[in-house]
Structures are given as C-alpha cells and as structure tokens.
Amino acid sequence: MTEAASDGASAALPNGVESNRAARRRESAILIMLALAGAVLEYPLALAIKSIELPELVHAMPFLVITAVLASMVPFALRVNPRFGLPGAPLIAAKIAGEKMPISMRSLLKISVRYAILAASAGAAVLAVVIVPMLFIAHPHGGGSLNLPIPPMLTLAPGRIATVGALVAIAAAVSEEIQFRLVLFAVFTWIARLITRGSSGESSRGALWFATFLQAYAFGLVHLLPLAGSTFHSTPLLLVGGLLMPQTWEGLVFGRLYLKRGLEAAMLAHATMDVAMFVLAAIGVLSTHLSAK
Asked: How many CA atoms lie less than 13 Å away from 245 in the CB half-sphere?
C-alpha cells in the first residue's frame, strides 16, 4: 500500500519538476565529487613540490573533514540558490540540462583573468601594507633584512615547480570554490535571510554583502589556522588575524565574481591566479640558476 502510494505521488509530479530534481541530483553528485577529489589530490601534489612537509600532513586531516562536511551541503546550496538569487554553477547546470551555455568560453576566460589580476593585487596589497611591516616590527634587529628561511619548494627544478604547482593550484581552486563560494555563500545568505526575516524574492544587497564578507573571512581563517600556533596565541588574535590574511581579500574578489558569473568563473579566476604564482616562482628559480652560472 505504501509503495503504491509512493508510486502514485511520483507519477503525480509534473515531468518538468521530476526532471529538474534529477538534474539537480546529478549536479550535486558532480560538485561533491569535484570538491572531495580536489582536496584529496591537493596534498600529495603539495608534498611533491615540498610546499608542505610530510609531518605537516597530519594537520591536514581536520581540513579534509571540513571539506567533507561542506561537500555534503552542496545539495542544500543548489536547492536554495534559485530562491536567493545566487548563480550556482550555471555552466555545469546548462550542460546537464542540454541547454545553451549562458556565457561563451572566451568571455568567461576574459572576465576570469581580470578578476584573477584583481584578486592577486588585493592579496599583494595586504602583504605590502600589513604583513611585511608587521614582520619588520617583529624583527627589529634584522638590520633591514628579515632573513627568512628559503621555502623548500624553491630548491626544486623550475619545471617541477611550474607543472606540479599548476596541478596543486587547479585542484585547490576547484575544491575551495565549491566549499566557500557555492556552499558557504548559500549558508550565509540563508542566515542573513533568517536575521532579516526575508522569505521571498531575491536577496537584498545587504544580505549579499554579508554573505560575501563572511565567506571570504572564513576563507582567510582556514588559510591562517596552519600558521596560528606560532603567531596568534589567543582566539581574539586569531580572529583579528583572519582580517589580515591576503586570502580574505582575495576571497572578497572571488565572491563578487561568483555573484556576477557563477561558480565556474570563480574557479577559473582562482586557478589562474594560483597557477601564475607558481609559474612566477619557477621563473624566479630559473633566473637564479642562470645568474649563478
């Protein structure tokens, strides 16, 4: 009897509604797989270029748990995005539905590169204006030099830095954009709607800015936590430190791009910025090798 009732309820659904649900399930499965695969691949690749060391891999486990939790919330994000006026992943959704792409790849690439440059500029500005002066203040007897240790990655062959680093950048960009831009944007927008008691229509500008800042701040905090033990010794200092992280301000830029063009554009901009940084590091190492000969 129960099975017959269930079959009758499914049959009563319009074909369009059932089709939309099936498409959303497929989209959820794809995005969850990408988020988990990106996070799992990132760490072995990072070990290969020594951007992390083997003992540090233990500290990665909590971040993998965070990834799994946020990935499990992808279906929620996809369900509420249309109601809140959030873009989600328009290219993936269009591909699954067999529809025309909402933006050409050429246009997507152009806007993503512009935002990658803007995000890199924001991060560099924070480094130059805040982080570097703080390091000089913390080392007042350095004689005008910080004497920081050379990162192990910069002792590798330039080609390895560029190629493996590019793979790290792509894996991280895909996974992190799903977690922070797709999922946390939806979660924080939902919270903003609860606070303001909004129940229908697209989200207000204030709610969107609230979500934009909080997802960016969370992005900065996650990148700060591995460094927190040696620099930020209390919770208040840690919370302030999140505001000083370059990734927080990069996350603001990626968040605005997500609102304008969707998840795929944010992924591409994030990957472009990080790949460019690894390539520049490889060029720097190559120049050092050539000048030493």
From this structure: 26
Are 51 and 60 in contact by the 8 Å Cβ rule? The answer is no
CA distance 75 to 68: 13
Q: What is the pLDDT of residue 71?
A: 97
Is pLDDT of 204 > 90?
no
Question: Angle, nearest 10°, between helix axes 158-176 and 263-292?
Answer: 160
What tokens appear for 188 in the block? Answer: 């924080």
Q: At what angle do helices 74-84 and 15-48 cross, to 10 degrees?
A: 120
* Alpha helix positions (H), the chain: 2-12, 15-48, 61-71, 74-84, 90-97, 105-126, 132-138, 158-176, 185-196, 205-231, 235-244, 246-261, 263-292
CA-CA distances (angstroms) from residue 123 to 4, 228, 251? 59, 19, 9
Q: What's the burial of 2, exposed, middle or buried (CB within 10 Å: 0-12/13-18/19+)?
A: exposed
The predicted model scores a pTM of 0.88
User: In percent, how much of the chain has pLDDT > 70?
Assistant: 86
CB 24 within 8 A of CB 143: no
- Whether the CB-CB separation of 104 and 110 falls below 8 Å is answered with no
Span 93-151, pLDDT tens digits: 999 999 999 889 999 999 999 999 999 999 999 988 887 777 667 666 655 555 666 78
Q: How many beta carbons lie within 10 A of that of residue 4, not counting itself?
A: 8
Contact 57, 47 (CB under 8 A): yes
